Amino acid sequence: MDNEYETSLKPSPAPRSELMNSPIAFASAIGIAVLALLLAISSWYTSINGRAELTQALGGKIAEIDKSGKDVAIRNEALLRDLRDAQNRVAQLEGKLGEFQSQRVAIEEMARDLARTPEDWLLAEIEQTLNIASRELILAGNIRAAIVALQTADQRLSRAEKLSATPLRRAITQDLERLKAIPAVDTQGIALKLDNISALASSLPLTVPTSMKDLEGLRPNGLAEAGTDLPWWRQIWRDFAHEMTDLIRIREIEPNEASLITPQQAIFVRESLKLRLLSARTSLLARDEANFKEDLKTARELIAKYFDQKAKVNQNVMASLKQLADNSVSITTPDIVQSLNAVRAARAARERPGR
After folding, report:
1. Each residue's pLDDT tens digit, 293-339
2. Could you tell me which residues come within 8 angstroms of residue 168 by beta carbon, excluding any fewer than 6 positions away?
3. CA pair distance 134, 142, nearest whole angstrom
4. Judging by beta carbons within 10 Å of its beta carbon (0-12, 13-18, 19+), is residue 292 exposed, middle or buried?
């Protein structure tokens, strides 16, 4: 009973065909669909416009950034140019400053030179003279030039009445005494003798002649017959004997150890002699007595072995070489440091402020 009662109370649904046939409901559905479509289109268009505006805005920002980067690069280039210009100007200023400093030093030196007295100039000249003499002693061992320089300096100091240079003159006198006590070596004279012997080396006669002209006088007397009045068989014999004599020559050589050399070897012998003499000259200038004597000894051995000992010119050369070898060329040359120190001390004392 209850179920029947509840069933009778529920409303019965309207049929589907009735709803579809209702014009108002259909129009409402279409309007809602159209409105939804319009809203979708509006949203899509709005999104497209927004994306275009965003893209345009981003493009503008990127262009501005590129422009700013170019401006920065241009400014950096300008700054680099300004920096280089500044560096060049600084370098020029430094160069001018160096020139000004050099000019200032030169002006100060000129001012000191102008302020010097004749005594100061005299001391400067004496110092220069002693420096030259010291170099001559060290480089060439020229004792004579050093003695002349010291004597000249002492004479000039003796004529300087206003200059009190007693310590300087004492030092110069001591150096002079030491130099005069050394035995003099005539270096230039020895060198000239070596040059003269070297010039003669090309013409010194050898032990074995190297040309046919030197052998013309060596034919046997029996083979030197001349004339056309001889019988024919004797003329044939004479010509045959001459040919055999030119083919084979026998000569006794003294001393026995003399060597047979060809003309080409003779040239090398003469050049070796010249080289030995040149080496001896170099050792002489270097004060190397051991090598000097050794070179002269080798030169004498070459002459004794390959050159004619009976020739007067060779005998004179051998005697000259022996005489030169007896000279001592390794003399220890003293210095003149005392005189140099004394003149520098005298100049320093006069240039000291408040003297």
Report:
1. 899 999 999 898 888 888 899 899 999 999 888 887 776 767 788 88
2. 126, 157, 339, 342, 343, 346
3. 9
4. buried
